[in-house]
Specification:
Elements (H helix, E strand, L loop, with lengths): L10 E2 L2 E2 L25 H27 L4 H22 L8 H25 L5 H8 L2 H12 L7 H18 L27 H25 L6 H24 L7 H29 L1 H5 L1 H4 L2 H10 L6 H17 L1
Antiparallel strand pairs: 1-2
Helix pairs in contact: 1-4, 1-9, 2-3, 2-8, 2-9, 3-7, 3-8, 4-7, 5-7, 6-13, 8-9
Length: 344
């Protein structure tokens, strides 16, 4: 790729920048404020976004298995990051991808690892000690709003346009419709089937867990925006950057986990398998997809994946547990998808 004037290759931190990675794009493609390059890029980010919604929608149930087995929240986060880092490192070794060596990239990786992994993973696991996995997924739908707020501060190109605001509103309405919130959040099933807030509701005992889940979403919001501005384009390989990010988060958690929660213990084969899948798939492979979506579509669009995550617990309940699905579930899913496409 040339610079458009001298024909020389554009390089960043010693690596050649490819069109799909760098903010500078080829002739005829104008970069949108969200980071994408127009309608032609839809196929480049939408499949990854939908795949992420499936993976991360199931992650809340896996976290719940771990905490219900007695694994301390900080150890849930540490095992999740460790298994994810090992999976990512294996991907780099198989692909013969070298990790970046410059100190600036490592420093940014440490910050991103804290904002997107170490801190929110611990908070979310703590929250799920007090609230259900479905509730945690619902609280996670606040992430796009937090991302937009941080994006307006950290990203000069980010603008709160009418189209983007409408898309986020549609997505939020979809989540509320999916939950059947007109039945209330303090008791009963939300609309006779589907992913209600739960029979027990939040209640006073779950306020701490709810606040922890909400705090995690603001970490995600800051992390998405920080990643877009200072980290996503520092290396041509998403696998390399994701490995560095999750590796840094693993080290950060390993430094505090024994101090906060004591030594680890064997949680049983079921919980161990859940944490392995949660790490290798939900934190390993998924973060490669996440970084690619951020590069192509921008942080605000990437954060919209959290609007779709509550759809999947509902679908899993209907298919595997024979739970009834009301009309509001179908309508909510349609609104979520419409919101994602509109905000794009």
């Amino acid at each position: 790729m040339g610079d458009g004037r001298t024909g020389r290759a554009v390089r960043r931190n010693g690596y050649p920048v490819r069109p799909a990675v760098a903010p500078a794009v080829g002739p005829g493609l104008a970069v949108r404020p969200g980071g994408g390059t127009g309608g032609a890029e839809l196929a480049g980010w939408l499949p990854g976004l939908l795949t992420l919604s499936v993976i991360w929608g199931g992650s809340f149930a896996l976290i719940k298995v771990g905490v219900d087995a007695g694994v301390a929240p900080v150890w849930v986060a540490l095992w999740r990051c460790l298994f994810g880092a090992l999976a990512l490192l294996g991907t780099c070794l198989l692909g013969r991808v070298r990790l970046p060596r410059d100190r600036a990239t490592w420093a940014h990786a440490a910050m991103v690892g804290a904002l997107l992994n170490a801190v929110p993973f611990t908070l979310m696991a703590f929250g799920e000690q007090q609230v259900s996995s479905v509730q945690a997924g619902v609280f996670n739908a606040v992430t796009p709003l937090a991302t937009l707020l941080f994006g307006l501060v950290l990203l000069p190109a980010e603008r709160l346009t009418g189209r983007r605001g409408l898309g986020m509103l549609l997505g939020l309405l979809g989540v509320l419709c999916l939950l059947g919130v007109w039945h209330g959040l303090s008791g009963g099933n939300a609309g006779g089937g589907g992913a209600g807030v739960g029979a027990a509701g939040v209640g006073a005992a779950g306020v701490g867990g709810s606040l922890a889940c909400l705090a995690a979403t603001f970490c995600y919001g800051a992390g998405f925006s920080y990643t877009r501005r200072w980290y996503a384009n520092r290396h041509p390989s998403a696998a390399a950057l994701s490995t560095l990010q999750i590796g840094c988060a693993t080290v950060e958690l390993a430094m505090v986990a024994p101090w906060l929660a004591g030594p680890p213990s064997w949680p049983g084969p079921g919980a161990a398998a859940a944490l392995l899948v949660l790490g290798a798939v939900g934190t390993g492979w998924a973060y490669i997809l996440n970084l690619r979506v951020i590069r192509v579509a921008g942080p605000s669009v990437a954060a919209m994946v959290t609007y779709a995550t509550p759809v999947w617990p509902t679908a899993i309940g209907a298919l595997l547990l024979a739970e009834p699905v009301g009309w509001h579930t179908v309508l909510g899913a349609v609104l979520v998808v419409a919101g994602i496409l509109t905000a794009r």
